[in-house]
Amino acid sequence: MSDFRPPASDIAFILEHVVGYNDLAALPGFEHADFETVVDLLTEAADFMAKVVAPTNRVGDTVGAVRNPDGTVTLPEEFRKAYNAYVEAGWGSIPFPEEFGGGGFPSTVGLALQEMVQSSNMAFALCPLLTQGAIDALLHYGSDEQKATYLPKMVSGEWTGTMHLTEPQAGSDVGALTTKAVPNGDGTYAITGQKIFITWGEHELAEQIVHLVLARTPGAPAGTRGISCFIVPKYLVNEDGSLGERNSVSCLSIEHKLGIHGSPTCVMEHAGATGYLIGEENMGMRIMFVMMNVARLSVGMQGVALGERAYQQALSYAKERRQGLAVGQEGVDSPIIDHPDVRRMLVTQRASIAAIRRMMLLNASYMDIASHHPDAETRQRAGEIVGLLTPICKSFGTDIGNEVTSSAIQVHGGMGFIEETGVAQHFRDVRIAAIYEGTNGIQAADLVGRKLGVRDGASVMEFIGEMRLILGELASHDDDFASISAELARQFDSLESATTWMLRTGIADPKAVLSGSSPYLRMWGLVVGGWLLARSAIAASTTGDAALAQDQLALARFYAEQILPQVSGLHGAATAGSRDLFSL
Ligand SMILES: Cc1cc2nc3c(=O)[nH]c(=O)nc-3n(C[C@H](O)[C@H](O)[C@H](O)COP(=O)(O)OP(=O)(O)OC[C@H]3O[C@@H](n4cnc5c(N)ncnc54)[C@H](O)[C@@H]3O)c2cc1C
Q: Structure pTM?
């Protein structure tokens, strides 16, 4: 199996040249997080993840999480050591506010670090990922007392967090949940019901688990309007902050899954467990949306992360494996990387990952602007862009993660299908990312149903207009950039035309719009990716680093010429309507 190292230098390049990190660091609150500090942090993180977390990936898959007869859940010993080291180094706390013990760094840096831990061990990384979602919900909606009780230990990683939404009859339709929350008369609630598929719902890596649970209070309105959100700690917390009695929440079983075997996916039973209301009754969905927006981006990043790990493995294998004589070579067999079709697979993998990594980090930077910029109008616009890009990042990112990990198996030939090689694990692990945190179909429905209509379509059209500005910049570059410019211009038109169709058709025929929503979302992903790679090529051409400039130009041109043309090919499916789907 190949050695893995997270790509800190590409991340640093994106932060500097695509995201414009210096502008982020100038925002109030981020003064200490200057670019040089961040680059040092990323380099150190890449070392840590490569040495401490990445080696635990295989044992997580082969041994996995085990539920014991007493209801406890055991992980491989390697996980405990890695988690303790992760907490001690403070990696999980980097993006959280300093007042709760965090590093106060921008979310963009947090997301970059998340890619590194996810690619090192996705199953392991789910533990801090879910904790992050719970922290975000408490930061926004928790009372001062709740924040003081839970946040410092969650930020440090000493306590972990979970999200309890799903029930057997309530998956994509969270509004169908039936778990009950009955007031105890002392300000607390008794939570009763069963939740399924709860990630890291039970384990012993940390001393405490803080479950955030959606439930209904008596007489609550039907559907999503009647959902409330509760803190249900595994151990009740005493007034002095020490851990008290065990709460009545337990793990009934863990699922046997296709991948992420090292992440315990639990069926959780709440048997009158003590719960503490967050915010007010019936505010649950608003709270969950805070968790979900950040979590959706993080899950999109899983596609990039596992794509990167599988790509590195495929690249290394392609340099070692000899088979057949490549065109123009003589003598013994050539390394398979010299065969054009293997190259095609590898370059497609690399270009796709590079495009989406840029999209993810750009999206995160708009989150930072939306939360920290002093100007209200700038914050508002950044929030709109986050709203638009998040479903695209989640859905396109995880689709590409599935495609790249599959293609990495193909590069290995038959050995890719054999488990000892290790590359099949990435393919199995990443498969879930297109399903949880809102399936990719739900993301597409969100894009056409909620995001396109912002300011009657003006918001989304403005974003296309902003992307088009690159054509002016490309015009001042030499012929090497000509095909990038021509293809981008063609595909901006195609995307704009499909968007116009969506906006015109939406109200009269929502079924038609939903029928084309997934291909339409893919059009967006492809165009934003091509735009950002072109921006990278332009930026690299001004660095004075000839090798970097050539590398980024080739990547952007390959993407523009060989991947971007798919956009106009998808136009038909995006705008076909529902007739044949429903006549078959
Ligand atoms: C490993 C794993 C970990 C998980 N972790 C958690 C967790 O920590 N916490 C938690 O609460 N949940 C968790 N989940 C649950 C996960 O979020 C749900 O599985 C997911 O939301 C989909 O719900 P479902 O499985 O009921 O599928 P369904 O909702 O039954 O969907 C089936 C299919 O129908 C489509 N579909 C359904 N409704 C619509 C619609 N309105 N429009 C278009 N298409 C639609 C879906 O896109 C999908 O293709 C996890 C699941 C797994 C497998």
A: 0.97
